[in-house]
Design a protein that fits this description.
With 577 residues, the protein is α+β, with helices and mostly antiparallel strands. 26% of the residues lie in helices and 33% in strands. Strands 1, 2, 6, 7, 8, 9, 10, 16, 19 and 20 form a ten-stranded antiparallel beta sheet that branches. It is elongated, with a radius of gyration of 28 Å.
Amino acid sequence: MKNILLQFDFKQTSDEDSVVFTDPLYMITANKLDEVEFCMEQIERAVQDGYYVAGYFSYEVAYSFYDVDIKHQNESMPLLSFGVFSSPTSIPRSEIFGEYHVTNWNMKVTKDDYEKSFQRVMEAIENGVTKQVNYTVPFEASFTGNSYQYYQDLKNAQQSLYSAYLRFEDMDILSVSPELFFHYKEDTIKVRPMKGTVKRGKTFEEDQQHYTYLRSSEKDRYENKLITTLMTKELEQVAEKDSIHVTEAFTVEKYPTVYQMTSTIVGKVSDSITVTELFKRLFPCGSISGTPKKATLQLIANVEPYPRHVYCGAIGYFSPNNEAIFNVPIRTVVIDQQNGIATYGAGGAITGKSTVEGEYEEVHTKTSVLTYREPPFELIETIGLQDGKWLYLNEHKERLQDSATYFDFALSLDKLDTILQQYEEKYPTGLFRLRCLFHPNGNITHEIFPLKATNNAKVVLASSNIDSNNPFLFHKTTNRSFYEAFQQDDYFDTLLWNEHGEITEFTIGNVVIEVDGEKFTPPVTSGLLNGTFRRGLVRDGIVKEKVLFKEDITSADAIWFINSVREWIKVELVINN
């Protein structure tokens, strides 16, 4: 038990510290359903005796609370596992650093089997058995190395409010869940069901469209309302009916890879309800089962071919200070350290309004956290200063504001204006290039250079493609390693192309070609930065957007490199065999 580490990064407020437990006095563990009730009694007794009790409940624990016929039990890990502790402690220093390797994630259910299960669920909905079913599938990968470092990377990628790292003797649980199951403190309970998902857009404009879509989506609001109604009724079993009310409805929250819709319900818990009784009345969370709950649990047991384990269960702790808090372990990786196998569950709510294509896409959207990595970066604006006047300043500010909103950067345009005024006064003549870095906390660092003439205007095609799904292509940031990999000392710049063979941009500017007197530039959707000079040319009709391929470039009458500092530079494409 010396290796056990349970860390709860539940951030109800921005300055809330992690709660950490190590070296339990003893463990409370259930491996079979008929052991669950006794373990619940042990948990209640330990809390009443003044101890903290921390750990997890697997989803399959629900089968001990409901009369459900099951075809498989949770055999590879305990149904529940809790440590009993005198008090929280601090994070061991040995957990901070480490390396790891994880292979590609593979869905354990074929698309054909997924579609068959979807049809079974839709038939149950049509027959009135259920209104909504949260159907899930597992993913699997091989894992070696330091799971704590992997947890930190996942947490940085997801930026969730209810993350937790649980290390047991031969199993690690890495949960970066955005969803609160319940928070009970003194006599008040809060639940926060999450239902409704859409992936983030790559550009600011596309991102706003996705946000607006989710806010007004009839399907997602219907799903959310069903679960909010279910959980409100469940709260009536443990809380005073008149005290229960929805404080927030259909709130859309932003995460690095998705938007999620949540609602919040609060109530005053009845004096006669113990904390473990409260848990039993609410578990499992309605958002990951469906409604009506019992019939839906039975349907899930019939349709899903694998146990969920801790995924969709509950992770958290009971405090002797009349408090308990648990997440819903979505966005959660479980690592079997003995076999080096990592598993991850993903799913979505199926209702009568669902389509198999939409649900299948949502499942894969929810796996993006597994591979998405956002390194530390700053926003960049490079602005030309010509004879004391800034070039395309409004366009630079507009792009900067869009990216700051997209990435949640603090931004003060007044602070930028002060910097610009200083340089205007210092350099009233000549041509200069100002480079500003905008930090997440609102700080701005800056430097200015005289603009040198371009002697070599030869360019070359990239030897391999860029990935047009990379969101950093659409924002000007210091995360430029994917550009720098293509730059060559012998050439002015390199012309890039995407996975579909479409021309995109240069590494430090946009591209325009001329054909029969007309000028064309690739559309932003091909995967490129909408440069400030480019957007003005397109807006004014000087240049038209058109999907371009390599043969369009090689047969063009002329090729230009453009940006807001140098504007037009005619370039020569060198073909390397």
